[in-house]
Amino acid sequence: MCGIAGILKWDNEKIREEEILALTNSVNHRGPDGVGIVLKEHFAFGHRRLSIIDIEGGKQPMSNRNETIWITFNGEIYNYQELKKELTDFGYKFLTNSDTEVIIYSYEKWGTDCVKKFRGMFAFVIADLVNKKYFLARDHFGIKPLIYRKEKNYLAFSSEITALKKIGNVTAEGNLQAIDFYLRYQYIPTPHTIYKNIYKLPPAHTVEIDFDGKMHELKKYWDLDFSEVKNKSEEQWIEEIEGVIDDSVRKHLVSDVPFGVFLSGGIDSSLIALKMQEVTTSKLKAFTINFHEKEFSELEFAKKAAAKCNVELISESITENALDILPGLVEHYGEPFGDSSSVPTWYVSKLAREHVPMVLSGDGGDETFGGYDSYMRWMKNHPMINARNTFPGNPYWGSRIALNGIKQFIKHGTFNVLTSWQNHILYAEKTRREKIWRKELHYVINVPDKLFENAAEKAVNFDRLSYVQYIDFQTYLPCDILNKVDIASMCHGLEVRPPFVDVKVVEFAAGLPLFMKYRKVGDFMTGKYGLKKIAQKYFDDDFVYRKKQGFGLPSYYWFLENKQGYKMLNAILQDSQTMNQLFNTFEIKNLLKEHGKNNKDNAGILWLFLVLGLWFEKNNDVTFN
Questions:
Q1: In 379-451, which ranges are E strands?
Q2: What confidence tens digit (pLDDT) does each residue in 206-220 have?
Q3: Among 2, 114, 309, 491, which one carries the catalytic annotation?
Q4: For the chain, which end, N or C, has fewer CB atoms within 10 Å of the first or last residue's CB respectively?
Q5: Over the stretch 307-359, which tens digit does the pLDDT of each residue have?
Q6: pTM of the model
Q7: Which residues on neighbouring strands pair with residue 521, listed in sequence order?
Q8: Is 2 among the residues known to form the active site?
Q9: Domain of 7?
Q10: Please, which residues have CB within 8 angstroms of residue 93's CB and are 6 or more apart in sequence?
Q11: Alpha-carbon 606 to chain mean position
């Protein structure tokens, strides 16, 4: 796990050493164990290293033996030993035991198709001096970030947006449309950023750039497919689900350094902790964050899970003073990022890094196995399913709704299924945004986001639950969850590995029938059925089937009058010139004033404006036209 950076120039432009040093040093927190740069005539690579595998031999940037291929790489390839053996059989000789060298020779052997062989999390850039091109690649799910800035005579890239804001004396121009996307989803969806000409390489994509600056079309090398469902018994499914999780945990424990686990007390992280302890010889350290507001604290369940898993639980309580770190955290994200759980993620990462350099997490369990409350509401309100996933006992089994499926409903215009789903997830709906944006800027409100539209277009062929799972895999998981964890953890130089977000696990889970994800248990429908049946082997029913609780802040309380969140946002609304230029701040002040009155809860949107205002304060040199 590392921070990468680089500059590619053409038109006889030469790169100065101070340019690549400045770019590399901007991500130094991501790699406290070492720094390396390589400076050639028209490209320069930088690397900040967090040493996890082959501590002595894995230094970067790295090249092949004759220095015709150079790489700077962030991430881990979990099947690198198998690939190394395969390449050795082809005659390749290795100087290190690092996965970085395996990527180099995989590219040399299989070209740009090498990414199809990798199992892991990765973002890398290769300079191919023979074929005179650069090759940029990002992992299947977007666990690791790759950001680039494309200008007339150069392309610069980095692991973080902030590094690319200012190149030379030129500050990137702000992207007004991205702000409206942020207000809709609490994040800015790929490939957009808060800046024009700065982009996120989408997950499961690669792109080639010729030495003369010609940028080829982005290529998608992998996609998730929910269409093939196998016919097995419940017992077979449960056995195979547990087997694929066991395998993934073992793969994710390839490490030359000590490791621990994030343990919230939820089903996902508890199963990961349990499986880790089963295959390790020493007692694991587990880390969790506690809130004084009891309805937001899962410490009781984390303690139960720790006892059952026989791990050492290390916890820390945080209060509203936790917001003291918010301005610095906003700066690390590089653009407005409104998931408030980034704050406890920052704190639990800091806590973990005091003990270990690497942890496993339960992230991705809900997307992979269908567990979010939003999915349950979606299925309850719109229980249409595709015929291939019907089963006896389902109230829609054999009905016209089941037989026709989503595609027919869209074909006959019964409703817009994407709009229907977005109504479940929007943070600021259209009517609210119309009140908040200044009238002359209302044009941004109606612009659709292509990432959602493209995902929905493919997902119409899947059953009702798989439809929203697929959309989340393209949007929410990479743009929110994985982005949140990457930045908050790498602030402290901590590597986080999510075994549920593994290509083998996800491909397997995509073949699950609906009844293994969404099922009636007792008097209620439950999500993540298959995973919960596994958890039942180890934990009691009260633990497994309790009401789901997210990893969120008690922000409702923190925005009450005279609390810290209230004071911070109120000051921003008074002083921020950019906020007043773009928005009708009277409406935002009303939201703040009304919050908590008659149990009115505006904390979600107030948090968005607090983060946005802090970002404006940190970036007052950025213009929006």
A1: none
A2: 999 999 999 999 999
A3: 2
A4: C
A5: 999 999 999 998 888 899 999 999 999 999 999 999 999 999 999 999 999 99
A6: 0.94
A7: 524
A8: yes
A9: 2-220
A10: none
A11: 23
